[in-house]
Amino acid sequence: MSCPTDELLRTHVDAPDDRVTAHVADCDRCDDRLAALRDDARFAARAVADLDGDSPGGRQVDVDAAWRAAGPTPAPAPRRIRLPIGVAAGVVALLVAGLAVFTPTGRQAAADFLAGFRSERFEVVTFDPDQPMAGLDQLEEIVGVDTGGMDTTGPEAVESLAEAAEVSGFEVSRVGSLPDGAELDGIVASPPGTVRVTFRGDRAPGLPPALDGAQLIVAIPGAVASTYDVRGHQLMVGEAGQLAVDAQGAELGTIRDYLLSRPEVPEDLARQLTEIDDWTTTVPIPVPVDTVVWEDTTVAGAPALMLDDAAASGLLWQADGRIHAVGAEGLGIDVLRAVADDVG
Amino acid sequence: MDDRFADVFHHRYAELVRLAARVTGDTDEAEDVVQEALTALSTHAVLERPDDEVAAWLRRVTINGAFNRLRGRQRADARTRRSAAAERPLRIADPSGPQLAQVVRSEERARVRAALAALPERQRMCLLLRHSGYRYAEIAAAVGVATGSVGVLLTRGERAFRRHYEELEP
């Protein structure tokens, strides 16, 4: 036989192959390669076996006790990342996330319409999934919400990317490369819309008079998501326009300060939002602490956020005025990166 | 469905805890990871699939969950070290004899875990499963690759693991 590949030699270490044995007996080069592979394998084997030393003998695991702890009805799954999908959720998220809106100094107040927030990058804010966050929902009660007739039932299934473009209002980026075996499952799209959130003194006792009647105008972007089946794993490639928030009738800084001071916003969350350096362009992404791991990274040179929990991982980035997301269950971040690097 | 879940739980729990504990170094934390994986399984469609597919899914989710915990802890440790270094002069403990050996072994295991965590996901999963006694077909199913690719991933993973480990030498 000709010189075996590294793969074949490595497999030979675990399951000896007579052809490989015969070959390396006559080939010094492959004999050396095999010795090096065997050496690396032994090194790794010893290192991994030694990891048990942290619990010598291994504490006996009580499966029955674990089952009782889990309960006959399994505990609810940990809360996943909440991304604004419906308008109500979007408004609440923006009341918190979009608090990031701020008024640049020196703006012409006379214009009474102040450009505020344009999404450009992402930053994680953590929350404790064990602490009740229901208070945030109550923020909706201190404002009036006008969805402008926007469809709030969520994205609709479409037949093609051309149809998705019609619904979302933008031409959908092509995905240059997909993992082997990827088959399109479906495409969904949602149209852009505008939501007006009006602060009303009759609903919010203690509302500063300057804010009575003030509005946040939230431009919810159109969005498209394609899902693929990759050998039994689900892959999602999504894209949305830019998120924008403007204000009318008040300084955005005043609105932000007021919302952050509301008792409905947990203190820790308010602190994290306050600490975001560039809040006029940063979308805070709420992430349950200890459940999801994240890292700042780049995709094709653009700042990106990598999110990873036990079952799934995702990449979120913005480029050319679009928000992009790639997520998958069980495919690994390397596969996602390959997909993400070729979106455009 | 409840019977099916109970069966999987009892059949897989101890195996998964052993696997996770190699990554986390702490059996209690490993049990938390496995409980989360099994909780996720309880509402997942894969629960209706054949046993080997369920086992592969659980191993993958457990290993990823365990490495997530490890990375979170490494991040927190780094923060603590930075904070401690800024707040007070460094104090060097003076362990000796068996205590010193214990400290050294513990640091070596931390290096092994850091070197594993630095590997690409599929390589570290292959390496951990192989040296925990799993067969190539089981590894391939958990990682989501063809059985023939396990050898390649192991070759690259073991080589890179050794390099990372040596780079981390104090």
Annotate the secondary structure layout.
The complex is a heterodimer of chains A (344) and B (170).
Chain A: H1 6-14, H2 18-26, H3 28-50, H4 63-70, H5 87-96, E1 113-118, E2 121-127, H6 134-138, E3 143-146, E4 156-158, H7 161-168, E5 182-190, E6 193-199, E7 215-220, E8 223-230, E9 233-240, E10 244-248, H8 252-261, H9 267-275, E11 282-288, E12 293-299, E13 302-308, E14 312-319, E15 322-329, H10 333-340
Parallel strand pairs in A: 2-11
Antiparallel strand pairs in A: 1-10, 3-6, 4-5, 5-8, 6-7, 7-10, 8-9, 9-15, 12-13, 13-14, 14-15
Helix pairs in contact in A: 1-3, 2-3
Chain B: H1 2-24, H2 27-42, H3 51-87, H4 97-117, H5 121-130, H6 136-143, H7 150-167
Helix pairs in contact in B: 1-2, 1-3, 2-3, 3-6, 4-7, 5-6, 5-7
Determine the mean pLDDT of chain B: 83
Any idea what the radius of gyration of chain B is? 18 Å
Please give the order of strands in the largest beta sheet of chain A. Answer: 4-5-8-9-15-14-13-12
The secondary-structure element order of chain B is HHHHHHH
Please report the distance between the alpha carbons of the first and last residues of chain B: 51 Å
CATH architecture call of the largest domain in chain B: Orthogonal Bundle
Report the largest inter-chain contact. Answer: A-B, 54 and 69 residues
Q: What is the number of E strands of chain B?
A: 0
Uncertain runs of chain A: 73-115
- Identify the CATH class of the largest domain in chain B: Mainly Alpha
Largest sheet of chain A: 8 strands, antiparallel
Task: Explain how this protein is built.
The complex is a heterodimer of chains A (344) and B (170). About 12% of the residues of chain A have low confidence. The longest helix of chain A is centred in the first third of the chain and has 23 residues. Chain A has 344 residues and is an alpha+beta fold. Chain A folds into 2 domains: 73 residues, no CATH class; 254 residues, no CATH class. In chain A, the strands form 3 sheets. Chain A has an 8-stranded antiparallel sheet with strand order 4-5-8-9-15-14-13-12, covered by helices on one side. In chain A, strands 1-10-7-6-3 form a 5-stranded antiparallel sheet, with helices on one face. Chain B folds into 2 domains: 91 residues, Orthogonal Bundle (Rna Polymerase Sigma Factor, Chain: A); 72 residues, Winged helix-like DNA-binding domain superfamily/Winged helix DNA-binding domain (Arc Repressor Mutant, subunit A, Orthogonal Bundle), CATH 1.10.10. Chain B starts with a helix and ends with a helix. The longest helix of chain B has 37 residues. At the A-B interface, helix 1, helix 3 and helix 4 of A face helix 1, helix 2, helix 3, helix 4 and helix 5 of B.
